[in-house]
Amino acid sequence: MDRTYNKHEKLKSKKLIDKLFTEGQSVSAYPLRMVYIETTPQNTDGPIKTGVSVSKKHFKKAVDRIRIKRLMREAYRLNKTTYFNNITTSYAFMILYIGNNKPTYNHVEQSMNKLFKKFTNAMHKETNNEKNT
RNA sequence: UAAGUAAAUCGCCUUAUCGCUCUGAAUUCAUUUCAGGGAGGAAAGUCCGAACACCGUAGUGCAAACAUAGUGGCUAACAGCCACCAGCCGUGAGGUUAGGAAAAGUGCAACAGAAAGUAUGUACAGGUCAUGCUGUAGUGAAACCAGGUAAACUCUAUGUGGUGCAAUGUCAUGUAUACCAACGUUUGAGCGCGGCACGUGCGAUUGUUGGAGGGUAGGCAGCUAGAAUGUAUUGGUAACAAUGCAUCCAGAUAAAUGAUAAGGGCUUUUUAAUUUUUAAUUGAAGGGUACAGAAUUCGGCUUAUAGAUUUACUUAUAUA
RNA sequence: GCCGGUGUAGCUCAGGGGUAGAGCGUUUCCUUGGUAAGGAAGAGGCCACGGGUUCAAUUCCCGUCAUUGGCU
């Protein structure tokens, strides 16, 4: 997997997003929160589809929202390889920014790493449980 | 030199690494490679005016609502812009004004005051034979003036059909002509986009309306070459117009135009040194570098904006 | 993106040019052995913000800000 984040890796289907928010599970590492769900894999796209979101309630100005989304996309792009390179199942992710202050890039990157660690731990637990039962 | 007025312009730059998106070319089952383009003066608010699209080409009468309001011009159009007149503000350069009608009618004016719009009381003075009359005083924003008030109703003149690219067209996917209630089938249920009437169109083999529900929520077109931008000349006081030449300048859709690192500008604070000492130069350290992100497209208006530059002018002081 | 509505006491709302009200809540007192209910008295407002019209604006007009609906 390369350090890319193009059209095919973006979460776009409205149907899938609705499903994600109603049925999905979540992990959080303040100020980030990730909602995820298993999906059926498709040939054309990669195994993971990711979206990024910032609430209009917390950031009124479009400039701030776009800035934070860009930082989050960048952090995802540069750090996803270390966690998801050998993944087998397909997932849909939606990463939300739930803080109230404008962050720096380093801050976002640290949080993103924490978030992914938490997520992988949760996955391991799940698989172990399945083996045990 | 200081303080100000008006108009106009700019609004960070460079390099490296890793990315995003569109277009073109080549190559592929996927894709990859190369070349080129990629935020603003306000992209913002959505306040006006248009283009464009659809809704019965929107016809007539009545009623209503809304907008505009000195004069002349500019413009595709406008509530915009320009010139001039008048009022008000400012020493001045200049700024500012919803600036039609009170002799068509209706209303309104708290408190104070004799009296607030059918006036005319008291005191004093003048005048007269006397009264009427004239002036002053006092209340108030306003006290008789064909008063004031029209961002009170109103009248006058002019204008306005409605809805907005989530318009609209098309392809794909997918189902339900299920169920309940009311009404009706040529003597017309109703419906058709904004008030009523007339007029007009559709209307029953599967009708119309309402209830309650099922399905799709994806692609393409619209979508960016235009009342375009730059420049020169000519006409006009100006807004602006005409002509020539050159240029092609974002098209995303959970929504691209970025991230990181280094260096440099600009500005400011502290501090040290030097000099020509109301200041300037150099070094060091720290801070700041605005407002803000296209979403159908143009013309305006309004609001936000660190800082920098230019031009013209005014006032004050000093010198010649 | 496009089109609307609303900002008045701690809360829910009236009022539409001339001193700003109601209900609930709140404070003090009365009543009771005590509490609730009841009675009496009081406090609490830049009428969202900035301009304009007017003698006078919460009210009329314009602009901001906040908040909240509808259209797919």
Automatic annotation (TrEMBL):
<keyword id="KW-0378">Hydrolase</keyword>
<dbReference type="InterPro" id="IPR014721">
    <property type="entry name" value="Ribsml_uS5_D2-typ_fold_subgr"/>
</dbReference>
<comment type="function">
    <text>RNaseP catalyzes the removal of the 5'-leader sequence from pre-tRNA to produce the mature 5'-terminus. It can also cleave other RNA substrates such as 4.5S RNA. The protein component plays an auxiliary but essential role in vivo by binding to the 5'-leader sequence and broadening the substrate specificity of the ribozyme.</text>
</comment>
<keyword id="KW-0694">RNA-binding</keyword>
<dbReference type="GO" id="GO:0004526">
    <property type="term" value="F:ribonuclease P activity"/>
</dbReference>
<keyword id="KW-0540">Nuclease</keyword>
<keyword id="KW-0819">tRNA processing</keyword>
<dbReference type="InterPro" id="IPR000100">
    <property type="entry name" value="RNase_P"/>
</dbReference>
<comment type="subunit">
    <text>Consists of a catalytic RNA component (M1 or rnpB) and a protein subunit.</text>
</comment>
<dbReference type="Pfam" id="PF00825">
    <property type="entry name" value="Ribonuclease_P"/>
</dbReference>
<dbReference type="GO" id="GO:0042781">
    <property type="term" value="F:3'-tRNA processing endoribonuclease activity"/>
</dbReference>
<keyword id="KW-0255">Endonuclease</keyword>
<dbReference type="GO" id="GO:0030677">
    <property type="term" value="C:ribonuclease P complex"/>
</dbReference>
<dbReference type="InterPro" id="IPR020568">
    <property type="entry name" value="Ribosomal_Su5_D2-typ_SF"/>
</dbReference>
<protein>
    <recommendedName>
        <fullName>Ribonuclease P protein component</fullName>
        <ecNumber>3.1.26.5</ecNumber>
    </recommendedName>
</protein>
<comment type="similarity">
    <text>Belongs to the RnpA family.</text>
</comment>
<dbReference type="GO" id="GO:0001682">
    <property type="term" value="P:tRNA 5'-leader removal"/>
</dbReference>
<dbReference type="GO" id="GO:0000049">
    <property type="term" value="F:tRNA binding"/>
</dbReference>
